[in-house]
Amino acid sequence: MPPFARKRVVLTPEQRAMYRDEKVTNFRLVSSLVASYAPDTLGPDHVASAETQQYLSEIGAYAELAYSLLPIETVFKHLHVLLEPEFPLEGYPAEGLLNTSVVCSFVGRTADLPGFVAYRSDCRQLVVAISGTNVDSAVQALYDIRTLPHRHPSGRGKVHTGFWRLYKGIRDAALKGLKQGLRDFDVAEVVLCGHSMGSAVSQLLVLDLLRDDSLIGSVPMRFVGFGGPRVGTKGLVNLWRELVAKRRRRHGEHSFEEYAVKMHRDGVPVLPPKAFGYRHCVERPYYSRHGRLYHVPAHLGEYALFHVDETTPAFRLAHIFDHLVLHIIDALQHIHIHIQPQRPHPSPSPRWPQLLL
Q1: How far apart, in whole angstroms, are the C-alpha atoms of residue 128 and residue 293?
Q2: Tens-place pLDDT, residues 288-323
Q3: Going by C-beta distance under 8 Å and a sequence separation of 6 or more, which residues neighbour residue 110?
Q4: Is 328 helix (H, G, I), strand (E, B) or coil?
């Protein structure tokens, strides 16, 4: 093991509070049992640009908000309160969020999986965000573990049965909201995002958009997934990559971009195991460890753990999160106690732990 991999990490007071208050399921145990380290070390040459890190940080806020137990319309209505110090969304990218209009929200027919479509007027971006597994939903968790492969309608490979059922439950509503946003706003970019299970379901929506070019036309499309599991078998992954190449040939190299972020010691990206025939769709993922974001070479894309050269400068990704940190759902469950008709006085309660890596 490289000597810098043994370097002791010093946690900030906020991070210590975050781990102390952790109440939800995490996947560190899965990582320790199943994940393996890649043979190569990620170093300065693999560090992602500051622009990429900032972009992912901003989109990560929407992936987190998809977990909200309150109607997303209520959350955005009271953003001016929720973004203040001592409140759940302190530290979030205020400018982008305050320039956001909710197009629609939806709840899937299967396991009540929620999501929403929103428009960011500051960058003309249409965002489709799909929630990951609600820790209080045993039904959603059961769909997570339904790993038997189901033949994809394309005839090209197989898809995780549970994720496929969840996707079919939100497909019509998500496409309706997407079309409404494209009709009502001047859209320069479409982003589909999610965390964990939400990342998996988002990929199935992306796959449908890639298969049917008429759904969004030449509008640039981005997939942004955080801590996502494997979705399909090698045949389905090959279809994804062929369709990506086809779209880029037709509409330009930047007509489609993909960002799959793996977190240090998050076990979800190793599920379902490769032994079951599953693979990741995104060929070149990213790896986040202690505030640093790295490009992962394509030949190492299936690994979930990496040794890194931590002498490179850190970039604190305030809104990219994984199963190792305090879940946004834990904060949003209590938002209602802070929402008041008028601007409240600063809360006397302990500060909400910020979601920092």
Answers
A1: 23
A2: 987 789 999 999 999 999 999 877 665 544 444 433
A3: 143, 165, 166, 168, 169, 170
A4: helix
State how far the Cα of 237 lies from the Cα of 235, in Å rounded to an integer. 5
Extents of the domains making up the chain: 12-337
Instruction: Report the b/e string of 224-256 with b at 16+ CB within 10 A.
Output: bbbbbbbbbbebbbebbeebbeebeeebeeebb
Let me know: does 145 contact 95? Beta carbons within 8 Å: no
The residue to which tokens 């979800």 are assigned: 268
Sheet holding 292-295, edge to edge: 100-107, 114-120, 125-130, 189-195, 221-226, 256-263, 286-289, 292-295
Which segment of 12-26, 110-124, 146-160, 219-233 scores lowest on mean pLDDT? 12-26
Tell me the backbone φ, ψ of residue 62, rounded to 5 degrees. -75, -35
For 95: left if phi > 0, alpha if psi spans -120 to 50, otherwise beta; the answer is alpha
- Sign (positive/negative) of CA torsion 50, 320, 199, 121? negative
The 10s digit of each residue's pLDDT in 189-198 is: 999 999 999 9
Which own/partner pairs from 183-186 qualify as long-range (CB within 8 Å, at least 24 positions apart)?
184/103, 184/119, 185/101, 185/103, 185/119, 185/121, 185/124, 185/126, 186/124
193 burial via Cβ count (<10 Å: 0-12, 13-18, 19+): buried
Name the token pair of 196. 């964990």
CATH number for 12-337 (one of 3.40.50.2000, 3.30.460.10, 3.30.530.20, 3.40.50.1820): it is 3.40.50.1820
Task: State how far the Cα of 338 lies from the Cα of 346, in Å rounded to an integer.
Answer: 10
Strands (E), the chain: 37-42, 100-107, 114-120, 125-130, 149-151, 158-160, 189-195, 221-226, 232-233, 256-263, 278-279, 286-289, 292-295, 305-308
Mean pLDDT highest for which of 16-30, 84-98, 213-227?
A: 213-227
